[in-house]
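Example complex used in Figure S2.
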Amino acid sequence: MSKIFEVPLYPYQRSADQDAETPVRHPVVVVGAGPVGLALAVDLAMQDVPVVVIDENDKVSRGSRAICFAKRPLEILDRLGCGDPMVEKGVVWNLGKVYFDERQVFGFNLLPEQGHKRPAFINLQQYYVEQYLVGRLRQLEAEGKPVELRGGNKVINLSQDEAGAELTISTADGPYRLHADWVVACDGAASPVRTMLGLDFTGRVFEDNFLIADVVMEAKFPTERWFWFDPPFNRGQSALLHKQPDNVWRIDFQLGWDIDRDEELKPENIDKRLKAMLGEEISYELEWSSIYTFQCRRMERFHEGRVLFAGDSAHQVSPFGARGANSGLQDTDNLAWKLKLVIDGKAPITLLKSYDAERLQGADENILNSSRSTDFITPKSEISRIFRDAVLDLSERYEATRPMVNSGRLSVPCTYDGSPLNGPDCATMPERTRPGSPMVDAPVPGGWLLDQLGTGFHLLAIDSEGTDTLRVDGIEVRCLDLSTSDDAIGHLRQRYLGNAAAAVYLVRPDQHVAARWDHYDAAAVKAALRKAIGR
Amino acid sequence: MAALNTQANIKAPDEFYAELLAVHEGRTKAESDALNARLILLLANHIGDRQVLAEALHAAALEE
Ligand SMILES: Cc1cc2nc3c(=O)[nH]c(=O)nc-3n(C[C@H](O)[C@H](O)[C@H](O)COP(=O)(O)OP(=O)(O)OC[C@H]3O[C@@H](n4cnc5c(N)ncnc54)[C@H](O)[C@@H]3O)c2cc1C
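Predicted assembly (599 residues):
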């Protein structure tokens, strides 16, 4: 049976655009059908923004690549209408173990907070994420939504002026040109679009190599994340074991800097490593292997005239902490509604500056966190190794230093503190839902809070009177009335009210808080909405 | 907010100093370095207060 990543899911088909005498103009062209480009296309199509996605390839990601998807991206995928198949297919995990040398240092339980629809994390191969996104896109297409996915289409040139961009695309039938009001480059870390525009991508290179082996095996290991520092089977380096669906196990060996890539990738050498780690008797099938190095870097800004950058094209992090794909999905979550309002003429073009401001903040947070993990896993000096080992040695006996053990931190969403879109705050309310924060899920009558929000501006009113759906500058703000009398466990109170008797939250279409008050004031809501759309 | 105590605060200082040296006795440089690192981490955790720790880091660096 062939693997899903070997099947052409969107093979090249000639488009009518290729026969047009003058280049056809589209409102949005997305370059790249990785997880980020696909999620953006689904988001835009759901909001009736016509979008064409082009990719030089016609298949989903070769090999698993990203395998950990965190709660916030799952909530975004829920909003896009494809969270369910992912969570059903994915492996939920909460337990982990840390080993140092020959000993188990400690085990941990992520102890996810109760009262959320989605788990803290699932493990799912990137190729499945992309497959479900392609499926969702096809479904929208069948419903008549304005979305098109063109495989075998490679961007080879791009130029822009104030009004739009011109792309030259090469295909099996030769090249053609397209015009676009907006281009979103989701074309990965090597972003050809970035290069075509001559833009920088700077940061820190880590002098290290990692070997990924995805093996299919019937193993009795529990569904836990196991991480080794300096184990006997990989001296001076680290290793990781983690479960994916279909009995696929991710095994990651740190190799160091001076290695012979071809030699390391030979199946017989991978076999030696696997047997040293898991025992001579294991039997497995090698699904995919790869050696990667990594860098932590980003563009100076993600918005260049009529071209916007999202995902790996805009920023790259080390894989520890699973922030690559997860943060790319947060980029599209942030961008789609802004692009929609600008295209509809309901928000000024300058609203897109807030995409830059907010997602640069997110990228910096991710780069900081993943650099710190990397510095713990690969100490850069003698003294940093001494402290690293001291933390591990103490952690075997004492709880005190366990929080410092850093083999990758949970990917958590960015709170856009200080965003130009943020409106008034109310000091008596919980810190975690202050303006700029992603909404925190909670059980509500009939299901879950985030499911009831969907896409669009909302007014969330808790124990508050007089609120009603309103229209501001042609934008609808739908009202969701909730009562603490339905909140027996108190999640809603804890997450949204704090010490306040009532609460009114203005929620953005990406489910981030724009502003909040302890009473309803229509004029204040209108002013905050105008601020949230960049007016 | 608590500040770093830079006044003398240990009773019987000579005894403490002797204990500090004694625990390092017979250890190699590498073992002593490791022990010192563990000691710093344990004491830092005991103090906990980030402000005090920041002041201590600064004071130990002998910077102005
Ligand atoms: C070996 C490896 C392991 C990884 N492990 C993890 C992990 O464990 N966790 C994690 O979170 N992340 C991981 N990542 C990173 C994660 O895979 C990326 O963050 C994620 O794929 C980014 O998605 P994207 O859509 O921005 O880019 P990509 O997935 O790279 O997609 C870019 C798309 O653009 C297309 N394209 C490129 N150039 C052109 C062109 N000129 N014309 C048309 N189309 C073009 C490509 O065909 C591709 O489909 C890993 C990456 C690699 C390489």
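The longest strand of chain A covers residues 202-216. Residues A 31-37, 54-57, 61, 65-68, 126, 154-155, 186-188, 192, 212, 290, 292, 311-312, 319, 322-326, 328 surround flavin-adenine dinucleotide (CB under 6 Å).
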